[in-house]
Write a structure and sequence with these properties.
The chain has 493 residues and is an alpha/beta fold. It has 2 domains: 275 residues, Ribokinase (UDP-N-acetylmuramoyl-L-alanine:D-glutamate ligase), CATH 3.40.1190; 149 residues, HUPs (Rossmann fold). The strands form 3 sheets. The protein has a 9-stranded mixed β-sheet with strand order 5-4-1-8-9-10-11-12-13, sandwiched between helices. Strands 14-17-16-15-18-19 form a 6-stranded parallel β-sheet, with helices on both faces. The radius of gyration is 27 Å and the shape is elongated.
Length: 493
């Protein structure tokens, strides 16, 4: 199931995707050295240079990430007719990126950022740039180039806005019109607080600081604060999804229709966050273009970002690194515990989902386990890779069924359910519904039985999908209880 989906994505889908990147093109130059003394000329450290490296930056780094994922990449932007522009073209060529959309301007310099590092710590950054809006002729060349690509067939468009003049209101409007006409998903890495120019985008990827700038107040990096701010933006902008990158808190996605996904960061030693956002953009657009689920896309993006931040400097992710990460996750072992606390279950669900497994959840009292229950649970288990049961506690059952219930204690009911081969975990809840539990553990599929309608299912906003299964006729705990009561009345028991 999902394992095959991810394997197919990594091995087959990525090399066949066609993605266009438009935005502010840059060269990132790194000067590496070591610092052991202070200059006698001024109170500044002396960095003894050992190595220099030039890599693609800005929108070009997104393209580099895509190229190293073995995607067919087409890049559009503006560069100067200068030595840095020549270097930019050489770097694009070396990564196999189609640079037919790069417009050469004699009136601007190629944006270059020089970072000075001493003992792996960034000491200073020097920026060489000309900041002005693209001219009408340059805009026409860019849009004509993109239109031609759309006609031939694109799977996604990335807009990387650094506020240097390529992503003007006019350019963006024409990009979104083309994308919507050809039904191509777009993803925007935004700049500034005025997001009206991004109206029409499918996805936008702010970090916490950028989201704060947009709403006009400081946001703490907490789930509820991020969600509240994102919903405020979605209510006033024509954007379908906000993908909030949250540093050590991972990534959150908030959809216009109210759905929410949170995914914590992959635990890695962090050496440099340069370019990590570009990696998220690249992996997300690929996952979206390949029609992966949002949760699966999140896992892939977080895993890729975890690899990138462990490197020094702007570092494009490689497809083989994702394959290696996926294989290492597959080598892990499932935990063997059957009955969990809420926090334990949350952690285990995350482990399963990181492996690419679909986690199915259902809930009930399961008071006097019978064949109808077993058949229902077996069918539910077939919808995914792992089945979790949310079990009503004694107090919860008593409120729902009356003072005489449950007939079987919660610990005994949990033990019986855990012993079933189709069940991977049981977790108790005291509430009348499992809504709070679902918000914590966030499985992929919520299964209900009977005559439920999907729109009426409590907790549906915390899962990817809801499935309704029919109960088997002739089997119910109430029937069993009534049969026993009648036998007692007839002195047959």
């Amino acid at each position: 199931m999902i394992k095959n989906t991810i394997n197919k994505f990594l091995h087959d889908s990525l090399p066949n995707l066609r993605i266009a990147v438009i935005g502010d093109l840059m060269v990132d130059r790194y000067v590496f050295g070591d610092v052991s003394r202070i200059s006698p000329e001024a109170p500044v450290p002396v960095n003894r240079v050992k190595q220099m490296k030039e890599v693609l930056g800005g929108a070009a780094n997104v393209a580099a990430n895509l190229a190293n994922l073995d995607v067919h990449v087409y890049i559009g932007g503006v560069a100067g007719k200068d030595t840095h522009g020549d270097l930019l073209q050489d770097l694009l060529d070396s990564d196999g990126i189609d640079n037919s959309g790069v417009v050469i301007s004699r009136d601007r310099s190629t944006i270059t950022k020089m970072r000075i590092l001493g003992d792996r710590q960034q000491m200073m950054r020097l920026d060489f740039e000309t900041v002005r809006d693209v001219e009408q002729q340059e805009e026409e060349e860019l849009i004509s180039w993109l239109d031609s690509l759309c006609q031939k067939g694109l799977d996604g468009i990335v807009i990387s806005d650094y506020g240097k003049g390529v992503c003007t209101d006019s350019v963006l409007e024409k990009i979104f019109n083309l994308a919507n006409c050809y039904k191509i998903p777009t993803i925007v890495d935004p700049k500034g607080s005025q997001w009206e120019k991004y109206n029409g985008a499918t996805y936008i990827t702010p970090n916490v600081k950028e989201l704060s700038e947009r709403v006009g107040y400081s946001i703490t990096n907490e789930d509820d604060k991020i969600v509240t701010a994102a919903k405020e933006v979605l209510a006033t902008n024509n954007i379908q999804y906000i993908i909030a990158t949250r540093s050590e808190k991972g990534i959150s996605i908030i959809a216009r229709d109210g759905r929410i996904w949170h995914n914590p960061a992959t635990q890695q030693d962090v050496f440099d966050v340069s370019g990590a956002g570009d990696t998220v953009v690249a992996t997300m657009i690929c996952s979206i273009a390949a029609n992966l689920s949002m949760r699966t896309a999140l896992h892939i993006a977080n895993g890729a970002a975890g690899i990138v931040v462990s490197k020094v400097g702007t570092y494009p992710i490689h497809r083989q690194e994702l394959i290696d990460l996926w294989m290492s996750l597959q080598e892990g072992k499932y935990v063997e515990k059957s009955v969990y606390s809420w926090e334990e279950m949350k952690s285990i669900v995350q482990q399963w989902q990181d492996r690419g497994d679909i986690v199915v959840f259902t809930n009930g009292c399961f008071d006097i386990l019978h064949r109808g229950h077993i058949t229902y649970l077996q069918e539910a288990a077939q919808l995914g890779d792992c089945l979790i049961i949310g079990l009503n506690s004694n107090d919860s059952v008593r409120r729902l069924k009356g003072e005489t219930r449950p007939l079987v204690d919660e610990e005994d009911r949990a033990c019986l359910l855990s012993a079933l081969g189709c069940v991977d975990g049981v977790v108790l809840f005291d509430e009348d519904t499992p809504s709070q539990l679902l918000e914590i553990i966030r499985p992929n599929i919520l299964v209900k039985g009977g005559d439920y309608k999907v729109d009426d299912v409590v907790g549906r906003e915390f899962v990817d999908s809801v499935q309704i299964l029919s109960f088997k006729e002739g089997y119910s705990t109430t029937n069993v209880v009534n049969k026993i009561a009648n036998l007692v009345k007839e002195y047959k028991l």
